[in-house]
Amino acid sequence: MQQTIVGKHFTDENDKPAGGCTQGTGILISWQNGPLGRGEARQEQNGAFVEGVIVAALDRLEWYQTTEFACTENAEAILHLRKALEACNSRTAAREARAVEGTHEV
User: Do 37 and 67 fall within a single domain?
Assistant: First the structure.
């Protein structure tokens, strides 16, 4: 049975991502609200990024693999989560190369 997850995602006056939250039993994620900025204007993170949530899921599955609950399905899930993290990091690198990382520029 899949857990019910409810997401509330917000946009700013320019229809750009502006935070929100995702929750379910035992889960409450407050998402980053707005861009971090670049250079001296860069601000502190105020919410979660998708990458952090992926790392948290990896941490749990990798821990399971050290217990009696280790299995091939967990190992496969770990591979897929690592691939997802690589894709997100690749997107960040491409945005940084275009000097738009930390902004709402596409």
Answer: no
Same domain, 29 and 6: yes
Short-list 13, 12, 7, 14, CA closest to 34: 12
Eight-class DSSP state of 48: B
My answer on whether 79 and 92 are in the same domain is yes
Amino acid at the residue 37: G
Q: Which domain holds residue 34?
A: 1-48
Strand order in the sheet with 17-24: 6-11, 17-24, 27-31
Token pair recorded at residue 20: 């929100």
What pTM was computed for the model?
0.93
Q: For the segment 32-64, what is each residue's pLDDT rounded down to a tens digit?
A: 999 999 999 999 999 999 999 999 999 999 999
